[in-house]
Structures are given as C-alpha cells and as structure tokens.
Amino acid sequence: MLDYDLHCHSVFSDGTLTPTELVNRAAERGVRVMALTDHDDVAGLDEARAVATQHGITFINGVEVSVSWRSHTLHIVGLAINPHFPALTEGLRGVRSGRGERAQKMSDALAKAGIGGMLAGAYQYANNPNMVGRAHFARYLVESGHCKDMKSVFNRYLVKGKPGYVPHQWATLDDAIAWIRGSGGVAVLAHPGRYMSGRNGMGKKTMHELLSEFVELGGQAIEVVTGSHTPEQYAEFARYAEEFNLLASCGSDFHGPGESYRDMGRLPDFPLSCKPVWHAWEKPAITQLSEH
Ligand code: AMP
Ligand code: MN
Ligand code: MN
Ligand code: MN
C-alpha cells in the first residue's frame, strides 16, 4: 500500500473539510507524505503544512490547475511548487477570475430548465467564493431535492450536453505547465482515464497526441493510481507512463466524507514498471541518471 497521497481538496476549493480536518484525517489513515491540491488556488497550503508538521507528515505544496485543451477540460496537478512564484500566483488569479461569471451563467441556464435559486444556493456551499464551481452547485441540487446524490446530479445537470453545463475557457496547457515548472514544481497530468470516458471522451489517438504535447511542453508525470481510475486503468496508464517516459503519481482526489470514491491514503501500490513521481524531489540525481 502507498503511504503517499498527492491529490486532495479542502474548503479552499471544492472539498468539504478544512485543511486542518483534512490533514488530521490523513494522519489517522496512515498517510506519511501528502500534497494538498486545491483547484486553481494555493490559499490552504500554509494551514495544511502547519498541521502536517505536528503529525510528522511530509507536506508537499500542490495545486490542480484547470486547463482547456482542444474541446477538453484537463486538470494539471503541480507538485512541490513554490506557491509564491509570481507567474503562478498571477496565472491562478486569472483562472479563478472567470468563475463568478460562469456561475451566473450556470444559474441562468438551470433557471431556464425550471430550477431557480441556484446562484445563491451554490454560494452557500462555496467557502471560498472566488472558487465557486460545479461541486457547489451539485451539493445544493442534492440538498434541495433535485437529485439523490452527487453522481446523478453531474450526469443529469452538470456535464456537457446537460442543462446546467456552461462551456468555459480555462488556462492553456502551455501556461499551466510553464507556471508550475517555473515555480520549481513537477507538472502531473491528473486522472487521465477521466478524459477518455463518456460520450465526449477522447480516443486513444488523441490521448497519444495529448501526452506527446504534454511531454514537449515540460510535463513530467501522470496519475496512475487515483480515485478516478479502475484497477484496469492503473495498468493502462502505467503503460502510457512507460511509453512516454513519465513518472507515476498517486492520490485519492478526496473531496469529503461520503462524496468521494476514495478516502485519503491507503492507495494500492503502483504496477511494477512505474517510477514514482517523488523521485523528482527525493532523488533528483537518480531520476536524471535513469534518463540516459
Ligand atoms: P469545475 O472546476 O467547477 O468545473 O468543477 C469540477 C469539479 O466537479 C471536479 O473537480 C469534481 O470535484 C467535480 N466533479 C466533476 N465531475 C464529477 C462527477 N461526475 N461526479 C462527481 N463530482 C464531479
Ligand atoms: Mn473538485
Ligand atoms: Mn480533477
Ligand atoms: Mn482533484
């Protein structure tokens, strides 16, 4: 079992726990090294680090950047970033800035579909109002009785082709990787299996094109073991990692009790071919050597 959890969310984006509650939970569940990776914001890192230190957990500064690539929304996780690097903080501010207007449009679209009061409802769940997003809409849609759970709410209202979906322009892949790398961090393609699923998912050819471009732009790792993947997908993306000479990352993508597929920590081991992403910061010299 892996005692690294390098992907999770707090109330500073769309998680339901404070950084303190999240790190306490990680500690209880045997996590030894963790990264907090809130969407498009680094505001929770200081609190999380302070609590992690009390528990003897090694804390890695993280972020999950929203990206638009072709017709797809991708998430790029930055690990071991410097959260004070100006290009990163300014870039993230830019990514966040469109969320308010998008929320307004989502609320208008849902009102047209007969569901009113959504804007105020979603903001009730957004502890960080700059980061209002689909998860906050989803929680309110469940609470107000329009849907029974988070999964059905997305499928019925919040994904492409459904009444509450509003297309949005996030960061470019190029910028997201440049901000992360520029700050000294490692750029990780989050939950790649998700981009291949569903009616609007990409095929294998497009995934190959994405990974080629990702590597060319300085991307260094992909998530192999994540709460979004099945065990078959661990193997599938371990093969992609090998083919593209990418490091492998792992994380629960935990958002809160009762909401996520996986709780913090206790992730199954990587397939044997994987080179763990932490070699990039724990053993940089060895990682460099193995490239030759
Ligand atoms: P946004 O950045 O506002 O588009 O919101 C994206 C977030 O919505 C993701 O990070 C997840 O937390 C959540 N999400 C997206 N799709 C689903 C789904 N099918 N089921 C549950 N949560 C989802
Ligand atoms: Mn989320
Ligand atoms: Mn994500
Ligand atoms: Mn995430």
Could you give a quick summary of the protein structure above?
This protein is α/β, with parallel strands linked by helices.
Task: Describe the model.
With 292 residues, the chain is an alpha/beta fold. It folds into two domains: 61-96 and 172-290, TIM Barrel (Alpha-Beta Barrel), CATH 3.20.20.140; 99-158, Orthogonal Bundle (DNA polymerase, domain 1). It is built from 13 helices and seven strands. It has helices at 19-28, 45-55, 86-97, 99-112, 118-125, 134-143, 150-158, 173-182, 192-195, 204-216, 231-243, 279-282, 284-290; strands spanning 4-5, 33-36, 58-69, 72-79, 186-189, 221-226, 247-251. The chain has a seven-stranded mixed β-sheet with strand order 1-2-3-4-5-6-7. α1 runs parallel beside α2 (45-55) and α6 crosses α7 (150-158). It starts with a strand and ends with a helix. The mean pLDDT is 96. One manganese (II) ion binds next to loops.
Features:
DNA polymerase, domain 1; binds adenosine monophosphate; TIM Barrel; globular; 7-stranded mixed β-sheet; 2 domains; binds manganese (II) ion; 13 helices
